[in-house]
Design brief:
about 350 residues; alpha+beta; single chain; 2 domains; Chitinase A, domain 3; elongated; four-stranded antiparallel beta sheet; about 15% strand; Triger factor/SurA peptide-binding fold; about 50% helix
Length: about 350
């Protein structure tokens, strides 16, 4: 292990940990604007596009805006459609996401954060290159100004996230405290030292071949229990890559194994074999050599990883606290959107 720590002695540097939807932003912006163009003209029964579905500060969100956002949000999550249950769940998420987006845009505006115009133009040009001359270009081209405006909003929000989640590299005492408070993140779970013989069966095999493989497995187990060397039997008969090393698997965590294999090994004492167990590739015979106790790595062994986790977790905590505070100090009210949701589900 022995990961190296940050360069320098106690020297601090600033690291911006961005919790933004970086590469997805252009695609989502395009989907959001094109969804607006593709929303059916007829509003759902019991609702109109002008109806207010949420109030965020001094601004309102209309039913039409929600339907546009919902369509783009669902398509960003489900590439091949989904069940009605999934669609309804995502519809609820979409309203919360739209409210959060509006809160963030308002806060970025309040702080006077400017959009990265160069980045916006780069993304717009990428869209031109991708769609011009294609079937959808007549749809896309008239929407480019609206897409650019959405990208500007995304850019301001991304900059805001950068401000909030910029975290200084921890001092030694902070890193040590983080390591001590999160030992589970640096602990290898208990494991087993195992060897393996796999009596292979081709994927297209029929019942007689499976029966023959099981019979061979039983014979091999009997031979080893009678005194034959496991490594020699593995080298001669095993279809697993470990055969080249006498069937040596080494350390294996219980969670890496199928349930029936885990249960069989858990009953063994050191040095014992399982009976042949049917697995996807054939019949497996395991030898349990010894248990391996869980081990917590000291800070010096995981310093680099601990530093990265500190930055990530601290940034995430700051972002969550910021969102909660933003929501708490802004008047937010949401209304029933079930008519829009049912209309959307029926259209899908």
């Amino acid at each position: 292990m022995g990961n190296q720590g940050p360069s320098g002695s106690g020297q601090h540097h600033r690291t911006a940990v961005r919790l933004a939807r970086a590469g997805a932003a252009p695609a989502f912006a395009l989907g959001l604007v094109l969804a607006a163009a593709g929303v059916p003209a007829s509003p759902p029964a019991g609702a109109t596009p002008e109806a207010t579905v949420a109030v965020v500060g001094a601004e309102t969100i209309s039913g039409g805006e929600y339907r546009q956002y919902l369509r783009a949000y669902v398509r960003s999550k489900l590439y091949h459609g989904g069940s009605e249950e999934q669609l309804r769940k995502l519809a609820g998420e979409a309203l919360e996401s739209l409210v959060t987006d509006r809160l963030l845009i308002q806060e970025a505006r309040r702080r006077g954060i400017a959009a990265d115009e160069a980045a916006v133009e780069t993304r717009i040009e990428a869209l031109r290159q991708r769609y011009s001359g294609g079937e959808t270009w007549p749809q896309v081209e008239p929407q480019l100004p609206a897409i650019a405006e959405q990208l500007r909003a995304d850019s301001r929000v991304e900059a805001l996230k950068g401000e909030i989640t910029e975290v200084a590299a921890p001092a030694e005492a902070e890193l040590a405290a983080f390591h001590a408070a999160n030992l589970e993140l640096f602990t290898e779970p208990a494991a087993w030292d195992l060897d393996l013989i796999l009596v292979g069966v081709p994927p297209s095999a029929l019942t007689p071949e499976w029966q023959a493989a099981k019979a061979l497995g039983v014979t091999l187990v009997a031979a080893i229990r009678a005194g034959s060397a496991f490594d020699r039997v593995a080298a001669e008969h095993s279809a697993d890559a470990s055969a080249a090393d006498g069937g040596r698997l080494g350390k294996v965590h219980g969670g890496q194994l199928p349930a029936e294999v885990h249960e069989a090994i858990a009953r063994l004492s050191p040095g014992a074999l399982t009976d042949p167990i049917r697995v996807l590739e054939g019949y497996a015979i395991f030898r349990f050599n010894a248990p391996i106790a869980a081990r917590t790595h000291p800070l010096d062994e995981v310093r680099e990883r601990a530093g990265a986790l500190y930055l990530r977790n601290t940034a995430a905590a700051r972002w969550a606290a910021f969102l909660a505070d933003l929501r708490a100090r802004t008047h937010v009210e949401t209304f029933d959107v079930s008519a829009y949701v049912e209309s959307f589900v029926s259209e899908e």
